[in-house]
Queue: 2 jobs
Job 1
Amino acid sequence: TPSTSAAVRATAGQVVTYEGRPVTTFFFSTSGGRTENVENSFLGATPKPWLKSVRDPWDRVSPHHRWKPLRMSLARASTLLGGSVKGTLREIRVVQRGVSPRVVRATVIGSGGRTTVTGPQLRKAFGLRDTWMRLRVFTTNAGRGTPAPPVPPASPDLPGALPSPAKPPVAADPGGSGGAQASGAPLVISGRVAPAAPGSWATVQRRQGARWVRSIDVRLGAGGAYREALPGPGRYRLSYGGATGPEVSAG
């Protein structure tokens, strides 16, 4: 995990000092664009004034500067987390980040209770390159049914509310046919995304050839739940906060 300040790097054979005394520094190959305080990288370590978070604009040349999203089922994630999951895994909620902002601590939420884990524990369990991560759970279902009633807007004073995209201008679904209503009960997409602020907006995307296009917008309820009528048969997925959920077939 990146933890050393650019101000104290040295070449081989040189001694790095702070206030005239030799100090210990750490090597890293990739910082992701910002280093981290030593106490947030090696949990329990004593803070050091020469091991503070700094920007690293040169890191973009690294092939690991950004990594692709890692996707897995809840069952797979639960297996990797092992005893940290009580009951059925529902969500992993970050409760403390460092300066960079790498994950320092998170809560694993299961149907049978909660467990506190560290960023390094999550990194090891999932085989990640770093603790600089964002975690989001999507569940998606499609079928015929009744849409949910409207969700009230999010409160700006909601404790722990996460920033989310504002509702974009309404746009017609280019592939919508209205055929879902012709046979009776409408086609409905439903599920949950977590963590997410109740009252925030998510976008349902529809597969059109090789592309995914915006179909409808849904407002999330308590626990990130959603349920909304679809414009017609097709392949759909939910998009929220820069991440997308699994594909489902409707109709």
Note: The longest strand covers residues 89-97.
Job 2
Amino acid sequence: SIYEDFAVIGNQLRAILKNRKVYYLHGYPSAIYDFALYCEQQDRSLRDKLKENLKGIFLGSEFPNKIWRAKIEEVFGVPSISWYGHTERAILAYEQSIQYEYCPFHSYGYAEATLIEGENYLLGTSYYNFASPLIRYNTEDIINPIEVENGLMEKFRISKGRSGEYILDKLDKKIPLTGLIFGRHHKLFNYCSHIQVYQEEKGKATILYSPLNKNLIINNFDMLFDDSNVNIKFHFEKVDTPVKSVSGKVNLLVNSKQ
């Protein structure tokens, strides 16, 4: 459960582990990341018990950023596999052998790359949705099609993430959050489990951060967050837990502070 306390989940897992072997974990990357932090910091005996038989971890429904993924694999000592999918169900793709390199199932939906304003966008056509079929639906993910065979895109990489996740600087320029947050190696990540962004007006944004240590007081944000060459005034606000969507996902861009 993405809403239940980890102590409760830990007790339930222990009961399961008495009679069954757990070979795989499966869930949102953000949820498994939080569980990994819990095991590492508060329940290492549960971590060690899981590691006895664990073979791998399946990450779905969210893009598994490298910080989350590295910590998950470090804590549990097994590899992870991610797949690409979305609510509209027009495209399904999986990692075959290289992380972040996705192979689409063309039997599920037709995936293609289309050049729009100088960028390759991932488009999909659904086969089985008769109620509201999606034809050349733009996922708004910008990709690099890295292998095409007989006219079909066999592999792609997500280059910039969901293009809708951006904030505006003072001059209305779009600042993609994937590059701003995960591409700059902010030292703030050394002290926080999650960083999210909230914007109410252009040129200003609030960084919501969840400290690994709830009692930690952080003041020197100018040393921990690299905002060089970004025409945005950043404000930093501590939150005990990250803001979650209705479905329980931890999105990078949020529309409220709670």
Note: The chain is about 20% helix and 35% strand.
